[in-house]
Amino acid sequence: MDTKSLLIETATTLFQQKGYKAVGLNEILKACNVTKGALYHHFPNGKDELLLTCLHVLKEGITSDIKYIFSKHSTTEDAIVSMINKLVNSFEKDGTISGYTFSSIVSEMATMSEPVRTACSDLYEKIERMYCNKLLEDGFSNETAASISLLLTASIEGAMMLSLTQQSTEPLKTIAKLLPTLLKSFY
């Protein structure tokens, strides 16, 4: 793995585990076994630029994964359950949900820079649009699809955070059971 990719992957994991503010540059450099010069070669604006890159990489990975899962299922209900089951399996296998959640990074947004807040907001909006588009394919009206996509985003993100903090897959499993019933109630 090249140095830039190593920095991005390591920083993303650390930011997800500890939050942006709790992770210092020295911790990233030590984990990657690279010099400060190497970091600034790839990210001249330092930690903020590295974070923006991490968020961009997360956005691409998450949206690509959602698109793939949605393409394999004919209904939003089936796709959402499949997606949540993937999160449960990841948590049970690795003890965490790395590479999929960015909530721990976003939780600090009130005091972050505007570009970072905007990057996080864009990612949530893209996820919501993807859910909304799948719901539109299922025949929901624009207004209902938009409302449900917000509910799905909040439920799944919240369940991921609860699973991580409780060290349990139960929150994810619970919403995997409840969301299909909820979706059916909108038909």
Verbal overview:
- The protein has 187 residues and is an all-alpha fold.
- It has a single domain (55-185), classed as Tetracycline Repressor, domain 2, CATH 1.10.357.
- It has nine helices and no strands.
- The protein has helices at residues 3-18, 25-32, 36-42, 47-72, 76-94, 103-106, 114-137, 142-166, 170-185.
- Helix 1 (3-18) crosses helix 2 (25-32), helix 1 crosses helix 4 (47-72) and helix 5 (76-94) packs antiparallel against helix 9.
- It starts with a helix and ends with a helix.
Instruction: Indicate the CATH class.
Output: Mainly Alpha
Structural class: mainly alpha
Catalogue the unreliable spans: none
Distinct helical segment count: 9
Largest sheet: number of strands, sense, barrel closure: none
> Roughly what percent helix?
over 70%
Shape: elongated
Query: What is the count of β-strands?
Result: 0
Gap from first CA to last CA: 48 Å
- Rg over CA atoms: 18 Å
- Tally of discrete structural domains: 1
